[in-house]
Amino acid sequence: MATWQEKLAADEIVLIDGGMGTELERVGAQMDATSWSGSAVIEAPDVVRRVHREFVEAGAEVITVNTFSMAPHMLVGMGYGDRVEKGIADAVRLAREACSEAGKPDLPLAGSVSTMMSKDVEAGTRRPLSPDQARESLSTLVHILKEEGCSLFALEMMEDLEIAPVATQVAVASGLPVWLGISCRRAADGVTIESFDVPGITLDQLYAALLPLGADVLNIMHSEIPVTGEALDRARPLWDKPMGAYPESGYFTMPHWNFVDIIPPAELVAAAKDWVGKGARILGGCCGLGPSHIAALRDAMPELMAARA
After folding, report:
1. With a threshold of 0.85, does the pTM exceed it?
2. Cα separation of 281 and 186, whole Å?
3. Which of 23, 101, 294, 309 is the most exposed place for a label (fewest CB within 10 A)?
4. 128-154: per-residue pLDDT in tens?
């Protein structure tokens, strides 16, 4: 079977998984009030393995390890400071076991690295990390993920100008391929596209700060579906490497995802055809999108391939 790099080099489409954290919640895993889905690896490993397996069975060709909220500072905030190395290693192991159970033991594993920067070192307190603290924590996460066998890093929700560059630099320094995932939405003025969670930071600013740092792929991810295509269009003059799209659907009220107005799988396929026409060659889903969405993309692959520009 061709690797994801070979498929992209041949202008083919690579299908990835959907929203791991929200799917865990949908099937009953408890979300942590401090750092969301990372605790599931420790408290509900069988559920984590099951969700990974369902995404493999739906057709995902790259599996994202459930470490979006498992950097050391997040594990400390959840009360698992004594399980940092084992917790992260277990997240990789569960993904690998799920691939094996589904008959695809050699699927590549992407270590998820986010800038979810809450730190509960004092009871009831949440505060952002400094760039130096972030570099230390994310460097540890990246090191363990690489040692445990991840073959690439998926930087997810890169949406600020202080910590996102640090995360990108740390991942690129690992020597493994890096997928840069930028998250955006329409601003209140109805025109500007800005950071998904940091109002006032424009998409153009994110591109200027992050695209030159050496990532191998640009993904527009966890972004509003209506702006995803425009974000891809605006990247094309600036980026000569592969691009992808995996949006969100619904909304978040910490620590719960609200499965409201989730895009039907057929509508996701229709949107994905447009993104392919704009250059996207990696497709999948983020928060709110589950195995049925990935299966729909898999089943529509002939149509998606025909939509290539």
Report:
1. yes
2. 23
3. 309
4. 788 999 999 999 999 999 999 999 999
